[in-house]
Amino acid sequence: MAAEQPIPVYTNLTDLYGSLGTSLNHAEKWNSVAEEFQQRFGRKPAFIARAPGRVNLIGEHIDYCLFGVLPAAIERDILIAISRRPNIHAEDAPGSVFAENMQTNYTRQVFAPAPRRRASVSEEEVRLEEWHLDINTKELRWESYVKAGYYGVLMNYFAGGSNPAPVDILVTGTVPAGSGLSSSAAMVVGSTLAFLAVNGKLEGNFSGNGPKITKGQLVEMAVANEKRVGVNSGGMDQAASVISVPSSALYISFFPELSASAVPLPSGAVFIIANSLVVSDKAVTAKRNYNLRVVETLAAARILARSLELKVEKTEKVTLREVVGRLAGEVEEAGEMPVEWLLETLKRMERETECLKPNKSSEEGQMGVTMDEMIEMSGLTAEEFHDVYLSWVEVEATHFQLYKRAKHVFSEASRVLQFRQICLAAESSPSSPMDVIKELGQLMNESQTSCNELFQCSCPELNELTEIAKNVGAFGSRLTGAGWGGCTVSLVAEDNVDSFIKKVSATYEPYKGLHGEALDEVIFATKPSSGACVYKFE
Ligand code: NG1
Ligand code: MG
């Protein structure tokens, strides 16, 4: 299985470019980072780590409920060149980082992890137990993501007293920030990889012995690392950035454990990304949207389980996917259940969501249930509820839309399974590709409606842009990523791509007046690319 493979490390440029699997001119970009590194730091980098952004084709806001999703890595990526500092100066604290970014508005940053000493050991045997890096989650900066990636490497590999190397790094990237293409995950994956590589942890140990780090392990580290910047995300972005393969989407499921498999996309189908140019700043809005949704879906899961008389421990944060499993006495160790069973059960669950509706139809009821009502529905005491659902996350809300959120999650989970089935069936009998594309487009449109009306993660500009896309020839169009701004993804027939882009850019107001490169930045076709890798200079 893909997640068990080691992270690819290339030492030969032909192999590296071949693995990227697209027609772009990669050499230019990789050479320019290496040359720029040489200029700035006076020597070649030791490694360049690459991590791509991703587009989610379908399956929004269900990864943290542990339902399967269907993203693909894109060609746009983050490259991080890194090398140990050759002459360690007195001022170079262990593990200090001299970080530069090729983007000029991201200024040079120097930081070092502070060792935390374990209180319980005596003075003589003081050992460095833990490292601390200051990440201000209220004000995320470019280096916050570098630190987040570094953090996990420190925790996992330098907890026992050894010192990490001081390093120089140079970051460059083409994934637009805050646009739903997961620049954040790409930064965190890239940084985790770069620090693993430079500290000799990627290939077991320095002599190349020992177990190599697998793609699955990197995903787990990157997910934990990204939580350090304050977003309680699911694992979709990191998995897509690490495990993707060229020309396919990736079906990623999180239950009973992380697994991923390639899903071939029908020939003639092109996915076009268009940026609404509304920037969703997750650091600012997480309390009112992203993290709130995480809490709403978890609370919904507990209340559903209670209404279905399923067993849930008081302190357990049961997810909606686990509720589905327990309903049918699914044995978690047995792996994922057959698709037909899952689709059937999801339909039933959509009906069961009735118990989540507020019991007043008044205006207040429209807003969802209050905190007190939610706690009462959960069967927990206020204190128990707070400990399990609120103590670890900051949310800001007076009302909670449990019914709408759960309804979205179950229907979206079933659309992902249908999308995958259509793609797999089309591969074995490629009879009428147009019908296939139409069916996929339909599912994408239903997803957008559900995101907008039930999950309420769209915004007027995203609604407008998806409508325009459908009007000028897309078979389907939806927001991609967390929403509340950022990008849309539209399914367009291959021979219609140029005219589609032209028409959208003539219609969507914020695109008017954009030409050439400026336009290519905001609307572009994308081919599924390969996942993260490392180039090692010899
Ligand atoms: P974006 O918007 O790309 O950061 C976020 C989450 C995903 C997933 C989607 C919604 C992070 C790092 N990622 O993606 O895990 O939940 O929203 O489907 O927060
Ligand atoms: Mg992100």
UniProtKB/TrEMBL annotation:
The keyword Chaperone does not apply. It comes from Lentinula boryana. Pfam families: GalKase_gal_bdg, GHMP_kinases_C, GHMP_kinases_N. Its EC number is 2.7.1.6. Signal peptide: none annotated. It catalyses: alpha-D-galactose + ATP = alpha-D-galactose 1-phosphate + ADP + H(+). Residues 159-242 form the GHMP kinase N-terminal domain. Residues 437-509 form the GHMP kinase C-terminal domain. It comes from the Eukaryota. Keywords: ATP-binding, Kinase, Nucleotide-binding, Ribonucleoprotein, Ribosomal protein, Transferase. Belongs to the GHMP kinase family. GalK subfamily. Residues 35-84 form the Galactokinase N-terminal domain. Pathway: Carbohydrate metabolism; galactose metabolism. This is Galactokinase.
